[in-house]
Amino acid sequence: MIDPRSHTPVYRQLADLLRATVATLPAGARLPSELAIRQTHGVGRDTVRSALRLLRDEGLVEVRSGYGWLVRGPVERIRVRVPRGATAYGRPATPEEQTDHGIDPGGYVQVVEIGGRTVSVTALDRTLLTFA
Over the stretch 47-62, which tens digit does the pLDDT of each residue have? Predict the structure, then answer.
């Protein structure tokens, strides 16, 4: 239940509730529509979208055009070694990177650079960094 008096933002409370629902569903299952979530929890459209984006960024759900929000299956992590002196950061994926790495629209990539030269670009939600 959403507590409007809580110090936790409403979208995070909603994300917690949706995360519990996602945990009970099989991979590929459709989540309720954004409208149904709004009506069930008495929240606004922006709150629902923020909560769903948070779950997407955590790799728990994905959005498919024409299908809505779906539960993602287990994701194999890509291990990326970050050498000493390298820089690692996340940024929005370009359309080309979305295609190359199977990233949903609005998704992010993990970039590793050494001396200003890009040495690695991977899907952020599937990347596990190890530091040397």
Answer: 999 999 999 888 899 9
For the stretch 82-100, pLDDT in tens is 999 999 999 999 999 999 9
Domains identified in the chain, total number: 2
Instruction: For residues 12-34, give the mean pLDDT.
Output: 95
* Nearest-5° Cα angle at 129, 119 to 50: 105
Tokens of 57: 């960024």
Last residue of a domain, one of 48, 71, 94: 71
**Cβ-based neighbours of 60, under 8 Å, separated by 6 or more:** 19, 22, 71, 72
CA–CA gap between residue 132 and residue 128 (Å, rounded) = 13
Residue 50's domain spans which residues? 10-71
Question: Do 67 and 82 lie in a common domain?
Answer: no
57 in Cβ contact with 125 (< 8 Å)? yes
Same-domain pairing of 88 and 60: no
